[in-house]
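Re: weekly structure request thread

Next one in the queue (175 aa):
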Amino acid sequence: MPRKNTLIHTLFVNILASMLLLAFPAFSQTAPLEQHKAAKPLPTLEYVDSEGKTHKLAAKSRLTILHLWATWCAPCLDEIPVLDAVATAYKDKGVSVLALSLDGKNTDKVQDFYTKHNIKTLPSYFDYQMKVFRSLKLKGLPASIFIDENGKEIARIDGPADWKSAEVKKLLNQK
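Done, posted below.
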């Protein structure tokens, strides 16, 4: 009997994976930077740190990048080390990066990933119940929201970002 359940589970996973690949053929391509003509107010956004303490999003720098990701998201795994390098390179230029994991309460899984990939600049924060994700009406992961010093959204990338693109660099270097 357990063998039948395993077979059914494997079949289900394969069908689901095939459907996702058909639905999202550009899965590994980068998503465009969508800059807004006018800054958009954000709802109150709360997240937790690795000790379970709740924080509210507040603009603390010239530009804050709110990045949502998960360890089960393949493009996210490629992007986090690059984003860590961006955070390091732009930290003295008034850019802060806040990476929120959607791994539920699997804080150990995120910490293991950070350790394995030598992530030094990004602290680990969590959106346990996907409230931030839903509040921002995101389409999927990864997603990056660019927030100005007044706490308003000025741009976003719904999907994998090209952090070396001219558009993104221009936004990061903006005064």
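The chain has five helices and eight strands. Confidence is low (pLDDT under 50) at residues 16-27.
Next request, please.
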